[in-house]
Specification:
Largest sheet: 5 strands, mixed
Distance between the termini: 35 Å
Number of helices: 11
Number of strands: 5
Shape: rod-shaped
Strand order of the largest sheet: 1-2-3-5-4
Length: about 350
């Protein structure tokens, strides 16, 4: 939020700079031979003029957040034009510069299709009105200054619109990235949990006749896994889920052993660089899901290092080019973390390894 606020105040400051042009009508008021009442009225008109201009610019540069709609889009410009005419009547050519304040207000507050035509019309009308006091060098200077302000404010408008498009694009990309993150997390959480639940349900069905106690234990674990999965989904959607590597390693080994696999672990979670433990947790989860569900393996070897992890199984393998959404999502997750995912698979088994770059 700091950058938008800073830009708003920079824009307001830029608006203040143009108020120096009010020096000329102020000088005209105090140079007049009219009395004090004339000066008071003149200064009140200038103060109201400046306040209306700054109010319009506050909408333009985001100091005031309410959108200008309907007649309000023209209200500032009309009020400024009327007050400029009053100042012209009071101090003559000392007020020639006040007409050009209408130009940026029109260009920056009107819809895109109306901005340039309205600004061009205001520039021409301002020049014609100036000629009412005599078409001299000062009038021409003010006229060409009006054109300069017209094109400058069109440039400012273009810059603001480009910045707004970039902001919206950044927002859409952030939303898309968050959607992808949630999709990957939900896939990995549900894929693993449902695989283990399915496996335990099959085991419970086999045990129910000859070992009811063990079957009851399996059913209890199924309930616990289901509740844990629901909680993890809630935390995933809210962005609060943080799975510790040592927990994931323990649960992965237990799930594989329950599936009848012989699991060997080399290294430990504490040896892994802390910054890599989260992504390694996802690697373990996805690899375990694939081994239990698809591999048809008997043995699994998990190796943990400071900046690497590998999972080897002796299953029947698969074609890496036909990897499913889980492995595709895992590759994206690893690459986002600055690592490299390698998958080697043939009829003798599969090896999934991750190495973090720059280590």
């Amino acid at each position: 939020m700091a950058a938008p606020k800073r830009n708003s105040f920079i824009g307001a400051f830029m608006s203040l700079i143009w108020l120096v042009f009010l020096y000329f009508p102020i000088r005209g008021i105090f140079a007049s031979e009219n009395g004090m009442l004339f000066r008071i009225i003149g200064m009140l008109v200038i103060i109201i003029f400046a306040a209306i201009y700054l109010h319009a610019m506050s909408f333009v540069f985001g100091v005031l957040r309410q959108p200008l709609t309907g007649w309000r889009r023209y209200g500032h410009a009309i009020a400024l034009a009327v007050l400029a005419a009053v100042l012209h009547l009071m101090v003559g050519d000392h007020a020639l510069g006040t007409g050009i304040f209408v130009i940026p207000v029109l260009v920056l507050t009107l819809p895109a299709r109306q901005a340039f035509p309205a600004g061009l019309a205001a520039t021409i009308v301002s020049g014609i009105a100036g000629c009412a006091f005599g078409c001299n060098g000062l009038t021409l200077n003010i006229f060409f200054t009006g054109f300069g302000i017209l094109f400058m404010t069109m440039g400012i408008r273009s810059f603001k619109e480009t910045a707004e498009r970039e902001r919206k694009l950044t927002t859409r990309m952030a939303i898309a990235d968050e959607r992808d993150r949630v999709a990957r997390d939900v896939h990995d959480v549900l894929g693993h949990s449902l695989t283990v639940i399915s496996m335990k349900a099959d085991l419970a069905a086999k045990l129910v006749d000859h070992d009811p106690v063990a079957a009851k234990q399996q059913n209890a674990e199924i309930g616990q896994l289901a509740r844990s999965a629901i909680n993890e989904i809630r935390l995933t959607v809210s962005g609060l889920r943080v799975r510790m590597l040592d927990e994931e390693l323990r649960d992965t080994v237990a799930a594989m052993q329950d599936a009848g696999l012989d699991v060997v672990v080399t290294g430990s979670a504490s040896e892994v660089e802390p910054g890599y433990r989260l992504v390694f947790s996802w690697v373990l989860r996805e690899a375990a899901t694939n081994v239990i569900r698809h591999a048809g393996a008997q043995q699994v070897h998990i190796t943990l290092g400071q900046s690497s992890i590998s999972i080897d199984d002796d299953g029947h393998g698969f074609a890496p080019t036909r990897a499913g959404n889980g492995l595709k999502g895992l590759r994206e997750r690893v690459e986002d973390a600055g690592g490299r995912l390698n998958i080697e698979s043939d009829t003798d088994g599969t090896r999934i390894s991750v190495h973090m770059e720059g280590t």
